[in-house]
Design goal:
The chain is of the alpha/beta class and about 575 residues long. It has 21 helices and 13 strands. Bound molecules: calcium ion (2 copies) and fe (ii) ion (FE2) (2 copies).
């Protein structure tokens, strides 16, 4: 009987011209989202770049460049085999050096073409900041031409000035692919009112056509660490909160972004009570080598992080010589753990290069250069020392100043710092305010400060703290922050103002995610689900002031913990 009914329905659907997959739609559909593929052709031979017993070929971008081709292949194979994947979305930075090298784009487009031909699953792309610029060999018209099969050919509309386009994903959902990138090689976004209005017009058009809009963009729409626009503005579009308000009110609920290379899911509620979710996906070719699998029904949108588990090591070693057993054995045993080690080695390399007075905004001509330079050098020295031990350890140095280091599993400060960064990239970072790891890091910073600034004039230290805050766009907050710490703690070692200014935003941003929107595995209300707008408004602070207040509350919590008065 059931068979007869479904046969009848099928005949009716064919007769009425409706697509056959309409019945599948009721059970929902699924797709994969990957970001920041950063394809690099493997070098002919690995080169020693850094001092590390295993990861000596790691780079300061901490990206698995030589392996990228094979990681991308493994990802596409997993998508081909996964029946839950109906199509694939890539949110920019397809290759690493694509601005200068259109042939690498052509190589990727050929790979995508083969995937589509073999599986029948479409791929949709949008450009990232590594993919093109006006002054280089790949400009926007060429990008659209090379990737014409991956969004542009089937587009309903393509924006003339940018690479933005819209395309119907199926009979109920429409993709809005938004180009947030500048015309130059800058990593910053170039969102302006024209692009914002274009997106809103497309969302309204989707509604008029009876479609739900899904937005993809390279730069983030929402903060993926607190006050990201202030501390790390390269990764998030300008005027992000007002833009998010308007996108949410135009009916966009689900957004995918990339660029920061971290896995994070965040939510924002517009003043009208409409929720919007930005799911940032980590770089496919960096730890944890992951992408998203998304399952959409009208009632619920479910997302899960999936990982590339293995790559073709024979193809890798055929393309690139020089791999040793010290690399191949762990890669074969646990690719993800290997990728984590690679990331940590690369991060240490980069932070080692970046932790200088100049890089944190103090010029060599500044009178503050001396103390700030002394501070960062002292900190990096301490990070390289063993954490624990009777002598020649951070613990032993701390004891001299009456500061104890809580027990952790880490060998040295770098090991601890890079683990916090890896946790941030992987998402669901859970080093809470009370964790021995965060406490150990704050105490390390305090030890460094006490050791470095013995005998230094307090006024010089206060000026240095103010200079660092100002270089990070916080000059107007300097007085407020100092007053706040003074009121809260009375006499406060001025050296610690400096370390708080430098360390606590970093720590807060990287170590702990308490926003109730799970980064890697979660579900959000579907487009067809009713929205409790009033409840939404009551549930969450949405203004910049709310966020600043939350930040300052946590900021002072850190300082209290550091001083042991929590
Ligand atoms: Ca997070
Ligand atoms: Ca989150
Ligand atoms: Fe990227
Ligand atoms: Fe990027």
């Amino acid at each position: 009987m059931k068979k007869a009914i479904s046969l009848l329905l099928t005949v009716l659907l064919v007769l009425t011209g409706l697509p056959l997959c309409a019945s599948a739609q009721e059970d929902g559909f699924g797709f994969a989202v990957a970001s920041d593929l950063h394809y690099n052709p493997p070098r002919a031979e690995l080169e020693h770049d850094i001092d590390d017993p295993v990861y000596w070929y790691a780079n300061r971008r901490a990206a698995m460049e030589d392996e990228s081709d094979f990681i991308i292949d493994a990802f596409l194979n997993q998508c081909a085999e996964n029946d839950g994947v109906d199509f694939v979305i890539v949110t920019g930075d397809l290759i690493d050096n694509g601005r200068a090298n259109p042939d690498q784009h052509r190589y990727m487009a050929a790979k995508f073409h083969d995937f589509e031909a073999a599986t029948g699953k479409p791929i949709y792309v949008i450009n990232g900041n590594h993919d093109l610029s006006d002054e280089s060999d790949t400009d926007r018209p060429l990008f659209k031409e090379i990737y014409r099969e991956f969004g542009y050919d089937e587009a309903l509309t393509v924006d003339e000035k940018t690479c933005s386009y819209t395309a119907d994903l199926n009979e109920k959902y429409r993709l809005i692919a938004l180009d947030t990138n500048p015309n130059t090689a800058s990593t910053e976004d170039d969102m302006d009112s024209a692009r914002r209005n274009w997106t809103i017009a497309q969302a309204k058009q989707a509604k008029a056509d009876g479609k739900y809009p899904i937005l993809i963009m390279h730069h983030a729409l929402l903060d993926h660490m607190p006050l990201q626009r202030i501390f790390s503005h390269n990764f998030i579009i300008r005027q992000h909160l007002t833009t998010a308000d308007r996108f949410a009110d135009a009916g966009i609920r689900l957004v995918f972004s990339g660029h920061e290379h971290g896995s994070d899911a965040a939510m924002h509620i517009s003043p009208l009570g409409n929720p919007i979710y930005d799911l940032a996906t980590t770089s496919l070719t960096m730890y944890p080598l992951s992408y998203r699998i998304v399952n959409v029904t009208d009632g619920e949108i479910r997302y899960d992080a999936e990982t590339v588990h293995a790559i073709d090591l024979e193809a890798l070693t055929a393309a690139c010589t020089g791999y040793t057993d010290a690399q191949l054995t762990p890669m074969r045993a646990d690719l993800n753990a290997y990728a984590k080690g690679f990331l940590k080695a690369g991060i240490r390399y980069r932070l080692g290069l970046g932790l200088t007075a100049e890089k944190i905004g103090v010029k060599a001509s500044s009178p503050l250069y001396g103390p700030v330079d002394k501070a960062v050098t002292g900190l990096t020295d301490l990070l390289a020392m063993p954490l624990y031990g009777e002598e020649d350890s951070a613990e032993a140095v701390g004891r001299r100043y009456g500061i104890t280091l809580p027990a952790t599993a880490f060998a040295n400060g770098w090991d601890l710092v890079t683990d916090l960064v890896a946790a941030h990239y992987a998402g669901e970072e859970a080093y809470t305010l009370d964790s021995p790891e965060v406490t150990a890091l704050l105490h390390l910073a305090a030890i460094a400060a006490r050791r470095i600034f013995r005998g230094t004039d307090n006024g010089v230290l206060m000026d240095a703290a103010a200079a660092v805050l100002s270089a990070n766009g916080l000059s107007s907050e300097t007085a407020a922050l100092q007053a706040r710490t003074e009121t809260a703690f009375g006499a406060f070692n001025p050296a610690e103002y400096l370390l708080v200014a430098v360390a606590s935003p970093l720590l807060y941003g990287f170590a702990y995610d308490d926003d109730d929107v799970n980064d890697n595995h979660g579900a959000i209300p579907g487009y067809g689900a009713a929205t409790d707008k009033l409840g939404n408004l009551q549930a969450k602070g949405t203004t910049l002031l709310d966020r600043l207040t939350l930040f300052l509350t946590l900021f002072t919590t850190y300082i209290r913990k550091m001083l042991g008065i929590a």
